[in-house]
């Protein structure tokens, strides 16, 4: 029999995951959602044909609970949810900074917990989800989680101590690329291009570069060198990027994101 999956706290990531599971062929009858607001529940019911239930009902009815609330809401959610979760349920957390220990401490002894850091490209089946098992998660549990998140992109298993770094790289990663696109589109405006043209030019350059990174098997340095002609335009730009410390800024930025993920965990434990 198909396993019933509940998405608990269905916001942006929860909905992306829900839509991905349906695109991958999971029947809406095997999916449940929980929300804080009734209108949100109604939208999800109408949009996806899934049943919206209370957190307590989800805990009883679903085999797998995927928790996609903000880290700051996880304590309150667990107070409400945990008393209703039988120890044979698989509990999956998608929240930044929430450790498997945090959840295990609030659930019945022996409950399997898996921590996942995903990202918003799950909306277009190009997500990256890093998976770590808690103390009671078996190989079968990890495989089940890989199957769910594999339906909306790639998955990787990582030791849980690497999850803060993963959050900094792939969890927050799409935001850095959007930020670069915003900035480069403004550069196009500075150079006299219409905004729409600047946007299309830079987005297609990003897509082309991404596909080459993924499919060519070449190191990024070689791909960049292939664009960089002697005494040409690209090296003039690269010199400015180096002069402005962009490489150092990225090292510092991702370190800050990882530190913040750790702080969230410490603030909540
Ligand atoms: N947005 C992103 O790019 C990523 C987010 N994450 C993680 O995913 C989680 C969700 O993030 P978003 O989807 O961006 O947030 P969101 O705010 O869009 O979604 C969270 C949802 O949970 C609901 N909620 C909160 N407490 C609840 C409760 N007790 N019962 C039922 N529903 C409840 C809220 O009403 C909201 O709709 C966070 O923990 C975040 O760290 C992970 C990777 C990427
Ligand atoms: O900004 C955040 O905290 C979440 C976690 C990873 C991406 N967004």
UniProtKB/TrEMBL annotation:
Gene3D superfamilies the UniProt entry points to: NAD(P)-binding Rossmann-like Domain, ProC C-terminal domain-like
Keyword Transport on entry: no
Broad enzyme group: oxidoreductase
CC terms in the record's Gene Ontology section: cytoplasm
Residues annotated for NADPH binding in this entry: 55
Keywords from the named record: Amino-acid biosynthesis, Cytoplasm, NADP, Oxidoreductase, Proline biosynthesis
Subcellular location: Cytoplasm
Name listed for the protein in its UniProt record: Pyrroline-5-carboxylate reductase
Gene: proC
């Amino acid at each position: 029999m198909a396993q019933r999956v509940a998405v608990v706290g269905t916001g942006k990531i929860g909905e992306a995951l829900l839509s991905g599971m349906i695109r991958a062929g999971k029947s809406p009858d095997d999916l449940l959602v929980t929300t804080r607001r009734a209108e949100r529940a109604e939208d999800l019911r109408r949009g996806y044909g899934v049943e919206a239930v209370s957190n307590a009902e989800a805990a009883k009815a679903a085999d797998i609970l995927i928790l996609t609330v903000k880290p700051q809401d996880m304590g309150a959610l667990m107070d409400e949810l945990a008393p209703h979760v039988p120890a044979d349920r698989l509990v999956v957390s998608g929240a930044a900074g929430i450790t498997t220990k945090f959840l295990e401490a609030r659930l019945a002894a022996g409950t399997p917990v898996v921590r996942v850091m995903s990202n918003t490209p799950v909306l277009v089946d190009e997500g990256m989800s890093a998976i770590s098992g808690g103390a009671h998660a078996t190989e079968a549990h990890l495989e089940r989680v890989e199957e769910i998140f594999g339906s909306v992109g790639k998955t990787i298993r990582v030791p849980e101590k690497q999850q803060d770094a993963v959050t900094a790289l792939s969890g927050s990663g799409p935001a850095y690329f959007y930020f670069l696109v915003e900035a480069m589109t403004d550069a196009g405006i500075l150079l006299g291009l219409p905004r729409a043209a600047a946007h299309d030019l830079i987005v297609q350059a990003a897509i082309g570069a991404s596909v080459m990174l993924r499919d060519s098997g070449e190191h990024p340095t070689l791909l960049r060198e292939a664009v960089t002609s002697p005494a040409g335009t690209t090296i003039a730009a690269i010199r400015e990027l180096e002069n402005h410390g962009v490489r150092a800024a990225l090292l510092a930025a991702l370190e800050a994101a990882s530190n913040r993920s750790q702080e969230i965990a410490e603030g909540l434990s």
